[in-house]
Structures are given as C-alpha cells and as structure tokens.
Amino acid sequence: MDLASMMVNLANELTAPAWKLLWVVAALCGTAYFGHIVARMMRASQFPGQRSLTLGDVAAVAIVAACMLNLSQLINAAWNSMGTGTVSYGPISYTGAAGFGVFAAAINAVLTLVSVAGGYFFFRGVLLWRKAAVAGDSSHGADDVVWRAATHMLGGACLVQISDMIERLRSTLGLVW
C-alpha cells in the first residue's frame, strides 16, 4: 500500500466520525457552559456575598453556548458571509485535482482532511469567544482574544470549503494548473 492510498483510506474512514465528534463535543461544551452560568446565577441569588452576575455576563456566555450547540449553522453563516453556497461536511471532490492524474484521489483526500481540520479551527475560535466573554477586560490589552477568535473562525470556515477557496484564489491571482 503506497502513501496515496493510505491517505485516501484515512480520509474515507475518518471524515464522517471526525465531523460527528466535532458536533457532539461542541454540543456538550455549549450545554456545559450554559449549565455553568445557570449554576452561577443560582449561587449568586442563594448565597449572600457572592459576586453578582450582570446581564452582560449571562447573555455573552448564553450566546456562545447557543453558537456551540448550532456549530454547523454557524460555520455555514460564516462561509456565507464570505462566499456563496452551502457548506458540505463530507469528502471533497476538487475538480482541479483531475489534472494531477493518479494523485487526484490523494489530493482530494488531503483536502478532505484539511476541511475537517478547518472545522476544529472554527470550534477553537468559538472557544476563544467564550474566553473573551468570561475574561472581559481582565487582560488589559495584553491578549486580544476576540481578534484571535475571529481569525480562527474565518480561517476555519475557509478551510472547511477549501476547494472553493482554492478556485477563488486561483482565479483571482490568475494561476494556471
């Protein structure tokens, strides 16, 4: 078995479970974050002397939790803000790979794995959103978490639709291959 067929087998076997794992982990994190903020609200109201929560604290974490619960729709919305079309969460079939002959299947497999990695980068961006929502202004400008989150999310959305991004970059830059 050569390296190209190993990549194809890896992509075929890993793509669907990796996406399902991402959806489950995101839903569990979103549920845990929302449960944690509800528990903090209950503790603040039951025990005097606890730090009170503001509406901004609760709303920010609740929005991030809802985004995690609907991560696939959030990726689709981020992609639609940059491009057109619906995001596909399956194997990539890049039309430009046909020109590479026997390596076309391997190129599609690598692009499929990059697409899955883009989903995880997007998830990391949402986690950074939560960090920014919880930390607030405690970093005093040392670490700009919101911009890092936006970069992860936009970059992840681009990687999820890597075949479209390659075509757009190729046509924009006038590349021929």
Task: Tell me what you see in this structure.
It is a single chain. The protein has 177 residues and is mostly helical. The chain has helices at residues 3-46, 55-69, 71-82, 104-135, 145-160, 162-173. The longest helix is centred in the first third of the chain and has 44 residues, at 3-46. The protein has one domain. Helix 1 (3-46) packs parallel to helix 4 (104-135), helix 2 runs antiparallel to helix 4 (104-135) and helix 4 (104-135) runs antiparallel to helix 5 (145-160). The model has no long low-confidence stretch (mean pLDDT 85). The chain contains 6 helices and no strands.
Could you tell me the mean pLDDT?
85
> Structural class of the secondary structure composition?
mainly alpha
| Structure annotation, total helices | 6
Largest sheet composition: none
